[in-house]
Specification:
alpha/beta, Rossmann fold, 3-stranded mixed sheet, 12 strands, globular
Length: 355
């Protein structure tokens, strides 16, 4: 056999091994598929945005869903929406950053439905602004919701899932948990922490037939910018954030994202990265960190600078409107906000004066 023939043979053998591994992995994925009909699910941050969309998709497939969020009025509106669509849903008001509230949510799910088969840790907050206006409290709040909150709910749910013989956990991190973004330091730091925690416990809980899925979405059109917080030149910060969230070529619809998440949950996938832009960014950050760092430096130069006076104050999206936003540039975000229970602030009901 010539050297060329040997290389071809080796290449074919390697290809065969990879194909065999891929087929085996897909067969295992199919075997792990969970029928959601009758399953009991707890969704944190379920009153609006992505959480509400995930709850709707779970309900569409027959799951019985408990929504947890801090605002009872928002929960009531969400429950009304889902019940009108024929889904079995109930609510519990609480803050996942408080261990007692997290335990109570899990216990309530078990009391109402006899089990907790699915836990979706989706509760989240976003604070946008330059590092000059970012405080220790901003980091503490982000960690409390994005890291400690999921840890609290998992500590409450895992023992019950073990006794049941298994379960599914979904932790909603972000591409910001793989790639640090300027003006989002607290958000990214806490999402990195959640992604690390989620990945670390995945192999350990597999022994108990508990599948953990780490989800890292990119930009999604859920309407969330209106309920985010903005610091510094808050009107400019809101404008770029909302416009980016509305771009159809780099963002995906919230409904599509929720369907992907529930599909990954059903099959017990270890990780899901949503949107091609997020996948490309995550790969680039892993393979070319210095190049990505330079690109992010260039992006940062285009973002608003710090506000010389009163830049530390926090403003909601609906308090940060301008001639740029709302506009046709964020039309898709506005439509998503109306659909996903994100509209109770003045943002989309009655718009205050803009500057």
């Amino acid at each position: 056999m010539t050297r060329k023939d040997a290389l071809v043979a080796a290449g074919l053998a390697a290809g065969g091994v990879l194909m065999g591994a891929a087929l085996a992995a897909e067969a295992r994925r199919v075997r792990r598929a969970l029928e959601l009909d009758g399953q009991a699910a707890l969704v944190t941050g379920g009153s609006r945005g992505l959480g509400l969309l995930i709850a709707r998709e779970l309900g569409r497939q027959g799951a019985r869903v408990v929504l947890m969020a801090r605002d009872q009025a928002e929960l009531d509106r969400a429950e009304q929406k889902l019940r009108a669509e024929g889904f079995e849903v109930s609510t519990i008001a609480g803050d996942v950053s408080r261990p007692a509230d997290a335990r109570r949510a899990v216990e309530t799910t078990v009391e109402r439905y006899g089990a907790i088969d699915i836990l979706v840790n989706n509760a989240g907050i976003v604070t946008v602004g330059p590092i000059e206006h970012t405080t220790l409290a901003d980091f503490e709040e982000a960690m409390a919701v994005h890291f400690w909150g999921p840890l609290h709910t998992m500590q409450a749910a895992v023992p019950r899932m073990r006794r049941q013989g298994g379960g599914r956990i979904v932790n909603i991190s972000s591409v910001g948990g793989k790639l640090g973004m300027p003006h989002l330091a607290p958000y990214c730091a806490s999402k990195f922490a959640l992604a690390g925690l989620s990945s670390a416990i995945t192999p350990e809980l597999a022994h108990d037939n508990i599948a953990v899925t780490t989800v890292c979405p990119g930009l999604m059109r859920t309407g969330s910018p209106f309920n985010a917080s903005f610091k510094g030149r808050h009107r400019e910060e809101f404008a770029w954030f909302a416009i980016a969230d509305s771009l159809p070529l780099v963002s995906t619809s919230g409904r599509h994202a929720a369907a992907q998440i529930v599909d990954a949950l059903r099959h017990g996938d270890a990780e899901l990265v949503i949107t091609w832009a997020a996948k490309l960014g995550a790969i680039a950050a892993a393979l070319m960190p210095n190049t990505v760092a330079l690109a992010l430096q260039a992006a940062n130069a285009l973002l608003p600078g710090p506000e010389p006076s009163a830049g530390g104050e926090r403003w909601s999206g609906w308090q940060s409107l301008s001639n740029w936003a709302p506009s046709q540039l964020i039309r898709l975000a506005e439509l998503a906000a109306r659909e996903n229970n994100e509209t109770q602030g003045p943002a989309l009901r009655e718009r205050p004066a803009r500057t």
